[in-house]
Structures are given as C-alpha cells and as structure tokens.
Amino acid sequence: MSLPKLTDASIVADQSEMVGASIVQALADPSVSPLFWPADRLDRGSAWFGHIPFAHWIVWATRPQLFVELGTHAGISYTAFCQAICRLNLGTRCFAIDTWEGDEHAGHYDNATFTDWKQFHDQRFLSFSTLLRSRFDDAIDRFEDGSIDLLHIDGLHTYEAVKHDFESWKPKLSDRAVVLFHDTNEREQDFGVWKLWAELSVQYPSFEFLHSHGLGVLCVGHQVPKQLRDLCASQAPDQVQAVRTAVEVVGKRWQLDAAERELRAALNARDAHIVELNRVRSSEAEELSAAVNAADARSESLASEVEKLKASLTTIVEKREAVDQAKQNEEAKFANVVVEVNRLTGLVRASEQMAHDAVVQRDAILSSTTWRVTRPLRNIAAQIPVATKQKVRKAAKIAYWAATPWKMKQRVRFLQERRRAAKPVLSARRTSNEYALYDGTSIVEATSANYAQWIAENEVQAPKVSIDPSMGVDSVLTVSFLIAATGISHISELVRTVDSVRRQPFSHWEILIGLTVDVDSRARGVLKQLSDSDERIRCIESSGDDKAGVIAELTNVASNVFIAMLDAGDVLSNVALSEVAATLLDDPTVDVIYGDEDVLSLLGQRDQPFFKPSWSPDLLYAFNYFGRLTLLRRTLVMEAGGVSVDMGAAVEWDLNLRITTHTEAVKRVPKVLCHRSIQSDRDRPRPGSANALVHQSAIKKFWATQGIEASVETQVDGTQRSTWDVAEPPLVSIIIPTKNRHDLLQMCVDGILNNTDYTNWELVIVDTGSTERETLASCRQCVGKPLPKVQATTQQVHAIPCCRPFVCDRMDRLRRPKQSFMRHVNHRLGRIVVK
Fold it and tell me: Residue 467 above 60 pLDDT?
C-alpha cells in the first residue's frame, strides 16, 4: 500500500491549524488571565503602573498567606496586590509599612497624601489589610520569623538603604517567600538597587523586568511555587525577551489609562474654571447693571449733560482710532520701505559682484595669449559678412561629414540624444513662469537652464544615499560645525544655516557659535532661543577680534572627530552628511573630505556651480578650492598646529595648506553639499583688497615653511600666483605639430620667438606630411631664422619630418637626456598643453 502524497498546501494548512490551536490554548490558560485584570487607583501619579499586570499575576502564582510592602506612598502598587487578593478570595493578611513623610528620592510631602490613601484603603481593604505608619526597622518585631510569603521592597533606593532593608527582613521570610525589588533598572542620582540586584541575582533564582524603571523578582525560599521557578529558570534570550515584552505591553495599557485620567482631570479642572469665570462674569455684569441703573436713577437731572459728554467722548474715540490707524499705516509703509531698501541693497551687491566677475572674465580673456595671437584672424573674420560665415560653416561641416562617413552613426545617435534631453527643459520652460525658490527646506531649481537640467539629471533622478544605522556610522561621523558670529548683518542668514544642519539625518553633531562683542542684543536673543531648543547648539562668548580668533577658540572647545567651518548664509544640502557618511564607510581612514558647491541668489535660486577636481595640491596653492563643505579630522588639525589666529579672512586656506602637508588622505565627494551665500567671495578676494593682502600673506607663510622665498600676486580672478627664482632653469622643448597652413604656423612661431622671456628653451617643428610649398619653405626659414631675444646659446629651432599623424604620447622619443620639460603647442588653436 502506497502512502498518500503530502502537498505544500496541506502542510501549510496543518501548520496554520496547529498555530491557531496554540493561540487558543494560550489565551484559555488561567495563568494568563491575571495579566488582563482591571486596575484601580490610576488617578495618582506613579512609576508603578507598568508593573500592575505582574502584581496581579504573582499574587495568583504565589497565593501568599502574608504579604508585606515596605514603602507604599500613594498606594498604587499596594492596591494592585490587594485587588488580586480580593479577586481570588484569598485569606491573605496584608501590611503596608511607611512613614508617609517621603524621602530624598520620592520627595517629601505633607499629611494629605496619607489621609487620601487611608480613605481609599479603608473603604476597600480594611477587612484584611493594615496600614502601619512607622519606620521599617520599628515594625520588624511585629512579624514572626519565617512568616512572610511575599515581600515588596520600595523604600529609599540607595544601595546601603535597600541592602539594609533586605538583610533586616530576610529572617521574616518563609520557605516559599518571593521578594520584589522596584527600580532595579534606574541608575540616576544615587539609586543603588541595581547594584544590590547584581549581587543577589547570582545567589538566588531571579528574573528582572526592565520597563518602568525595572522590577526584580527574587525567589528566596526553597519551596517557591512552580510558576515562579519556571519564570526564573528562563535562560534563552528570546524567551526572556518575550516574557518581558508581553508584560511591558500589557502594563502600558494602565500607563496610558493613567495618562488619560490625568488629562481628563486637567480638562475637568479647566471646564470648572471656565464655569467659575462665567459665573463671576455674570455676577459682575449683574452688579454692574444694578449700579448703572442706580446711577441712572440718581442722575436724571443730569441726563442732558451726560449725553453731551457721551457725544464728546465718541468724537475723541473716533479721533484716537483715526490717529492709531494712521500710525499703523505709516508703520506699515516704513516697514515696506525697509524691506525694499534691503532688497535694493542686495540687488546692488549682486550687481556689483556680477560686474566684478564680468570685469575679471574680460581682463582674463584680453590678457590671454590666445586673444593676442588670434587678433589678425578676428580682424579678417570681422570683415566677412555674417551670411557668408554661416554658409562657410555649413559647407565645412558638410565636407567634413562627407569625408568621414564612418562617424555618421555616432552623429545621428548624438543628435537624437540631444533632442530627447532638450525636451524636458523646454517643457519646463513652457509650464512654469519662474524657477522654484528656496523655501527653507529644499532647493530644486536653478537660474540657469543648463544648470537646472544638470540638477534634474544628477540630483533629482539620482538614487538617495541610504545607510543602515547598524553600520555604526555615528561612531565615525561626529562633526563639530564652527560658526564665527562676527559682523552679522542679518541674523536670519545664520538661522537658515543652523536649520540646514538640523535637517541632516545624523544626530551626532554639534554647532558651536562664537559670539564677539559686536553681536547685538537682538541677535543674541535669537541665538539663545536656538540653543535652548537644541542642546547640540551652543553659543560661546569669544575674546577673538575676527573670524580667525573665534574659530581658533571654537576648535579648542570642539569634541567631535571632525570639524567643519560654516559662514552665516551657508545652507547644507539635505543629503550632505549622508554623502559624507557613505564616503567614510567606504574609507574610514580619510582625514579631509570636501564636496562641490554652488550659490544661492537673492531669490533663493541655485546658481554658479563650482564642480571641483579630485585632490589637487597645485590648485590648492592658488586658492582654497576646498571651500564648502569641508570636514577636517580634528586630531590632524591639532597636529598641524591648530588654527592660526593671525590669518584673518585666510584662516581656512592657511589651515588646509598646513594640514595637507601631514596627510594624503584627502577625498572629494562629487556632489553639491553646500549652497553658499551670494555675498561670499569663496576665498577669491578682489585684487588690491585687504582680504587679498591677507591671502598673499598666508601663501607666502606656507612657501616659507617649504624653504621657498616666493613673490605672490593676486590675479584678476582672485587666485594667488606664486613665483620664485630658479637657480638652474631646466630645458623646455616647445613642440609644434603642423601640416600645411603655413600662415598659422608662422603666426605661432613668431609669437613664441618674440614674446618668450624664458632663456633655456628650444623650438621643435614636427611636419606630419605637409604638401604645400609655402609650409615647407616656412619650416626651412624657421630653422635658419635669427632669434630676436637670444639670451643663451641653448635656444634652437629644429624642423623634424614625420610620416604619420601626430600623437602626443609618441613624442617622448624626441626627448634627449638633457631635457626636463616638453610643451606641445597646437598651431591651429593656439592652445598650449603642458606635458
């Protein structure tokens, strides 16, 4: 006979039936029902509400002949034990022992507490319960040795006091006695129950509940009931946790019930107060009405005069209201004027900054070699009609496409992708009249359509950084943000900066705000509100005169792993610390972390993005390109000598220069982590300004530590150019690859020969297959051409034929052993590439 085949469905059905049967059996178990018995006396404050279900259960489990409680206070716990005794109809004798005067932990109280409790007690439990108003030691002799089955110790909670209570009452315990200790999980102040419990729990079978300050169950007797032995024998962590969780969840019911009663009592008191106020108001109204009637009766002869006075008073009131209204209108106008002045001031500043940037860009273009070299071409191009230029460009493009048909698929694919990418941007322009503004919580759009598209593709559509808290990131990523509150013109900017930090997903940070004497009382009031609302925000009085001095003091106070400097108006992106945390998880040894940044316009729009390179020492020598947001490991800061108090506006650049001489563990986060204020110069001050001089001093000081005496000049773009004398200038080979177009070759060669001040160089012309006679003749002429600025015999001009296309990486074969540097110059574009 073959056995029936079991299917997965039948197995699942059998398991479901078994689980259902287990649940029904568990709910029907009489040992569970005491946990759900109702509770009483929930209208008094107590830390014992969470243990009421267990009090019911332990009375059911132990069924004591004699129960004693040391420390009853308002009677919350005692009521729970007595209720269970009444419900089970036991013959238990109960005693509550307390002075009802309070102590250092429960607080001291008057006789009203005992009077209220005694009235409640005598109405319900007087037949089997007695209140002993005395000290614990004075009541010991009233009980025989070995008589107490259940003892609850909840008096003074110091280690010495609770140990004394246990040892004093231990001889009174029976051979089936159980002792309960409250507050075993409370370690504040000088509570010591936890310490005694740690000693006793290894001597006797025990079980501890951790909720509601903790409750310890100690089986002192040798014949405790089986239910208590089973409870204390629980060793499996999941079983212990299951018991604790079940009792805690049931106990929360009475905690919530007590809270609800307290709220209802407060509401009833409020309603009663309202009723009383209404009564008083009604009474006063009646009295006032009676007084008015009496006054009217006594003043009939003066009625006409009263009417005149009323009319006069009405006129005065109307005039006063008109004056008040006019005053409010003037104040409103003045406020609008102030707002408009501030707006116009901001626009002026922004316009000045834009004008400065335009001048910087213009000067940079006009002073470039490319601009000077291409001047003849621009003169020629200016004389060609626009229509002709367009036709020439189209003809050249068609000719080039016809000459390179193998690239046609790539071109078609590129045009299709560009058309698809342009559609969302064009659609956004048609459906919205303005870009989204900064609302204090998010920034989603930019003033530039190109930047807006970049944001949409790289930030909005990018997956969010998600980090599991179990990875322990908070132990690695702890940041102290340092803000120097010097010369704050608008406190709202600083509040906006603080709010952006508070929105970060990680809580292990602090904000240290250094206050100088020039911070006014209004700003101090706002900052005090911030610090009072969040203990991680601290305002520190600083003796520093400027930003450098304040930051130096804050660095000494900071206690976290990393420090980061912020200015009022800087706004962190919502994922800034998430991105930093992901970087640290990838490489916890990183010492310096920096990210990209952009600028918030006056309207709160994102603009002027600065996408930074990876770690570049040479760029750091030009300006502090780390910018915002930059995190520095604090131990490394102190190792590098801390913050220099004499660096003024260049304090961050000076610190970054010195730190990077101690570590190469520098990493860039390729995300925009900070939106800076439009008023910030981003550590690129205007030439000739005071800040420019400070930055020059900072880089000079750094080069001096490297043994270099440098001259520093602030460029038009705000960067610092450092130069110094070289004892033995290395040979520089200038390589010009060319093919035909002798006019461009001649222009490039003349520019080098006539405008080069460097002495130790040579010019190498690589002909990659010229066929024009003019080009071949120019090469021969260049070789023999005199050098107008000859200052050393090493200056030479060579022409080398090459039978294949020019590739930069293959030109190393031209380098002779004496050469140190090579420069490749493209004769068509005038662009110089250094190798």
Answer: no
Beta-bridged to residue 822, according to DSSP, are 733
Q: Which pTM was predicted?
A: 0.44
In our burial notation (b when 16+ CB lie closer than 10 A, e otherwise), range 778-791 reads bbeebeeeeeeeee
Are the C-beta atoms of residues 675 and 573 closer than 8 Å to each other? yes
Which residues lie closer than 8 Å to 670 by C-beta, 6 or more apart?
595, 596, 611
Q: Is 16 exposed, middle or buried (0-12, 13-18, 19+ CB in 10 A)?
A: exposed
Evaluate whether 759 touches 791 at the Cβ level (below 8 Å): yes
Burial class (CB in 10 A: 0-12, 13-18, 19+), 340: exposed
Cβ neighbours, 10 Å, residue 651: 25
Place of tokens 């000459």: 403
Q: Which residue bears the tokens 């621009």?
A: 378
**Per-residue pLDDT reduced to its tens digit, 195-243:** 999 999 999 999 999 998 999 999 999 999 988 888 888 778 888 888 8
User: From CA 569, how far away is CA 678, in angstroms rounded?
Assistant: 9
**For range 446-459, the mean pLDDT:** 75
* Structure letter (DSSP) for residue 450: H
Distance CA 653, CA 639 (A): 16
Please tell me which residue, 623 or 765, carries the higher pLDDT value: 623
What gap in Å lies between CA 309 and CA 774, rounded to an integer? 113
Helix (H) or strand (E) holding 276: helix 237-298
| Alpha-carbon gap, residue 787 to 430, rounded angstroms | 61
Residue burial 139-166, b: 16+ Cβ < 10 Å; e: rest:
beeebeeeebbbbbbbbbbbeebbbbbb
Please tell me the distance from the alpha carbon of residue 757 to that of residue 760, in angstroms, as a whole number: 10
Q: How far apart are CA 123 and CA 116, in angstroms?
A: 11
Q: Which two tokens stand for residue 18?
A: 């078994």
User: What does the DSSP assignment read for 34-65?
Assistant: GGG------SS--S-GGGHHHHHHHHHHH--S
Residues facing 178 on adjacent strands? 150, 219
Determine if the peptide bond prior to 629 is cis (ω within 30°).
yes
Q: How far apart are CA 688 and CA 339, in angstroms?
A: 33
Query: What is the rounded CA–CA span in Å between residue 413 and residue 410?
Result: 5
Cα 606 to Cα 587: distance, rounded to the nearest angstrom: 31
Would strands 173-182 and 148-153 be described as parallel, antiparallel, or unpaired?
parallel
Cα separation, 347 vs 356, in Å, equals 14
The length of the chain, given as a count of residues: 835
Tokens encoding 9 = 């469905």
Structure tokens at 99: 């002075």
Find the angle CA(66)-CA(67)-CA(71) to the nearest 5 degrees. Answer: 150
Q: Is the separation of the CB atoms in 703 and 709 below 8 Å?
A: yes
Which candidate, 551, 577, 541, places its Cα nearest to that of 634?
551
What stretch of H or E contains 701? helix 690-705
